[in-house]
């Protein structure tokens, strides 16, 4: 049972991730139907002994096996294009957060507030307590309010990194000299973990990301105490 759990997506925490999961299930349904039909056809061919040596071609079958895959591709392409546009859509953000990737840590800057900036390093093994997550927890978590539209500006100072939070459906490259942006909305409170998904050096797997989603009032109190 535990092994099967690793094959699934993380629990969704944003509308974007919900749409990604729906699209995955849609594609899996089509693939299962195709595999079932092809498997049934193969078993039928293996089990019958009828041979027609005068049948050289069949235009009807050729039209069918050309048309049906084209229709299936349309059913796959249309939801895929819709999802791509949703992932690139930038709504009116309430908060803008800028992150810079370094070797091997992240710097966060809350652009809407003055002097609110900090570095986020992975928590060393010796500093972990019983409630911490090994190789995933950080010394400074990124605090964000839920049910709020957030714009993320992503870049890097040295090499290419990748800012990734699987449960939010967010993955964007941090490229030196280039500013990428993504938009997302967290729909529930909690802790959401991610890691750099780009091979950015020897300690590539040791620059985790932790987002702590809290209420708007708690977020404003945190901002007031941090400035």
Automatic annotation (TrEMBL):
Catalytic reactions of this protein: 4 Fe(II)-[cytochrome c] + O2 + 8 H(+)(in) = 4 Fe(III)-[cytochrome c] + 2 H2O + 4 H(+)(out)
Gene3D superfamilies: 1.10.287.90, Cupredoxins - blue copper proteins
Swiss-Prot/TrEMBL cofactor(s): Cu cation
The name this protein goes by in its record: Cytochrome c oxidase subunit 2
Quaternary context: Component of the cytochrome c oxidase (complex IV, CIV), a multisubunit enzyme composed of a catalytic core of 3 subunits and several supernumerary subunits. The complex exists as a monomer or a dimer and forms supercomplexes (SCs) in the inner mitochondrial membrane with ubiquinol-cytochrome c oxidoreductase (cytochrome b-c1 complex, complex III, CIII).
Purpose: Component of the cytochrome c oxidase, the last enzyme in the mitochondrial electron transport chain which drives oxidative phosphorylation. The respiratory chain contains 3 multisubunit complexes succinate dehydrogenase (complex II, CII), ubiquinol-cytochrome c oxidoreductase (cytochrome b-c1 complex, complex III, CIII) and cytochrome c oxidase (complex IV, CIV), that cooperate to transfer electrons derived from NADH and succinate to molecular oxygen, creating an electrochemical gradient over the inner membrane that drives transmembrane transport and the ATP synthase.
Matching InterPro entries: CcO_II, CcO_II-like_C, CcO_II_C, Copper_CuA, Cupredoxin, Cyt_c_oxidase_su2_TM_dom, Cyt_c_oxidase_su2_TM_sf
Entry keyword tRNA processing: no
Entry's Gene Ontology molecular function annotations: copper ion binding; cytochrome-c oxidase activity
PROSITE patterns xrefs: COX2, COX2_CUA, COX2_TM
Any Pfam family the entry gives: COX2_TM
Family: Belongs to the cytochrome c oxidase subunit 2 family.
Membrane topology summary: Multi-pass membrane protein
Key word Lipoprotein present: no
First-listed, main subcellular location of the protein, grouped into a coarse class: mitochondrion
Keyword terms, alphabetized: Copper, Electron transport, Magnesium, Membrane, Metal-binding, Mitochondrion, Mitochondrion inner membrane, Respiratory chain, Translocase, Transmembrane, Transmembrane helix, Transport
Transmembrane residue ranges: 27-51, 63-87
Domain Cytochrome oxidase subunit II transmembrane region profile: 1-91
Localization of this protein: Mitochondrion inner membrane
């Amino acid at each position: 049972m535990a092994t099967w759990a690793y094959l699934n997506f993380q629990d969704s925490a944003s509308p974007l991730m919900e749409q990604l999961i729906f699209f995955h299930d849609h594609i899996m349904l089509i693939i299962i139907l195709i595999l079932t039909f092809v498997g049934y056809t193969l078993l039928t061919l293996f089990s019958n002994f009828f041979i027609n040596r005068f049948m050289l071609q069949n235009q009807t079958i050729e039209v069918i096996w050309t048309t049906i895959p084209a229709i299936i591709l349309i059913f796959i392409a249309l939801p895929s294009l819709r999802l791509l546009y949703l992932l690139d859509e930038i709504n009116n953000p309430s908060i803008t957060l800028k992150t810079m990737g370094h070797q091997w840590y992240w710097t966060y800057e809350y652009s809407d507030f003055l002097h609110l900036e900090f570095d986020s390093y992975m928590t060393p093994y010796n500093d972990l307590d019983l409630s911490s997550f090994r190789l995933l927890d950080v010394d400074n978590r990124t605090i964000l309010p839920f049910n709020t539209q957030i714009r993320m500006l992503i870049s890097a100072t040295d090499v290419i990194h990748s800012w990734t939070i699987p449960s939010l459906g967010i993955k964007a490259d941090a490229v030196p000299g280039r500013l990428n942006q993504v938009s997302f909305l967290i729909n529930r409170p909690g802790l959401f973990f991610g890691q750099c998904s780009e091979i950015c050096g020897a300690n590539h797997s040791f620059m985790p990301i932790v987002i702590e989603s809290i209420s708007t009032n708690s977020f404003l109190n945190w901002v007031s105490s941090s400035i």
